[in-house]
Design a protein that fits this description.
Length: about 325
């Protein structure tokens, strides 16, 4: 409940304090700056140059192939990056000097490289779908005139992605997606989801109570799984099991309001507003997709960024500086 109150407070503060374009830029730069630090530190850590021993997490026994940075789980680093990357791409629409554009291009490739090296299959799929959402929104927008350039950029990015994905660790991750013996594999998650559905059936209206999943699920976890699931690895099922089925109606209403407000702001004349709104919408789309197979919204850093991006989309249109 304390975390929920914190997220609501941050939501309120973003809406009521980020009121000008200058403030909007600073907030976007902050998010991109954090993502850049996570990517650079993750790369240092991956190649044995970790300057901060307290971020080693060696006791978690994750494979050194995974890029996890300050996170204990590579999937959750991917969750943060997949929300931040569309913001950089959205800034391309705002129009910057050539020097700034070079920096944005460099940061885009840096964050995309880090995302690929997380070896998070959910992160890859979520990012691909969110960037497809962004491309479709641009191709159907009357404000965006460089459609040929966008198609060329998408084609080049896909070619680059295929080259990167051809690396041995990445290919291994793709080929082992359905292996039953892999810890928390897609197969084991589907088995666990069956137990979560049974739990929802027993507590349909009020749920089992927020924060009680790890304890109550011991009665419902199907046999044959290699470890105890303290998380459902599906935020939608876990939230529903803890709060009840009425949450589905509330969540559906929130999603409709969010995208309705976002598409309204995409018609605004300001390129900065359109770019940041589309970037935030695409980042939210990514995490909503990823949440079908993971629990990123139970990670405070990612839930905080999720809250900020939602607030950016539904906030009032920014004022001109000095007005």
């Amino acid at each position: 409940m304390i975390l929920l109150l914190n997220y609501l407070t941050i939501f309120y503060l973003v809406i009521h304090t980020v009121r000008t374009r200058a403030q909007l830029r600073k907030l976007i730069y902050l998010i991109i700056g954090v993502a850049t630090f996570l990517s650079v530190f993750g790369l240092f850590k991956k190649f044995g140059a970790n300057p901060f021993p307290w971020w080693d997490y060696g006791d978690l026994k994750y494979s050194p192939d995974f890029l996890s940075s300050t996170y204990g789980n590579h999937n959750h680093l991917a969750g943060y990056l997949e929300m931040a990357i569309p913001l950089i791409l959205g800034l391309f629409l705002a129009g910057f000097r050539p020097g700034i554009l070079f920096i944005l291009v460099y940061l885009s490739f840096l964050l995309l490289t880090a995302l690929v090296l997380t070896l998070s299959r959910g992160g890859w799929i979520a990012s691909l779908l969110s960037l497809s959402f962004m491309a479709l929104a641009l191709l159907t927008s009357g404000h965006f005139k460089r459609k040929t350039f966008l198609i060329s950029l998408i084609g080049g990015s896909l070619a680059l992605a295929l080259i990167v994905l051809a690396s041995t660790p990445v290919v291994k991750r793709v080929r082992t997606a359905m292996e039953k013996e892999e810890e928390a594999s897609f197969h084991s998650r589907m088995v666990a989801w069956g137990g979560v559905v049974d739990m929802i059936g027993d507590y349909p209206l009020l749920g089992i109570g927020p924060g009680t999943f790890a304890t109550v699920f011991t009665r419902y976890q199907p046999p044959g799984l290699s470890r105890h699931f303290t998380m459902a690895h599906n935020d939608y099922l876990q939230f529903t099991s803890e709060v009840g089925l009425p949450l589905i109606v509330i969540f559906a209403w929130m999603v409709i309001v969010f995208y309705k407000r976002g598409f309204y702001k995409l018609r605004y004349p300001s390129r900065l507003v359109r770019g940041t709104t589309l970037g935030a919408m695409s980042g939210i789309t990514a995490i909503l997709v990823h949440s079908f197979g993971d629990f990123n919204l139970h990670i405070s850093a990612n839930a905080l960024l999720f809250t900020v991006l939602v607030a950016l989309v539904v906030a009032p249109l920014p004022k001109q500086e000095g007005s």
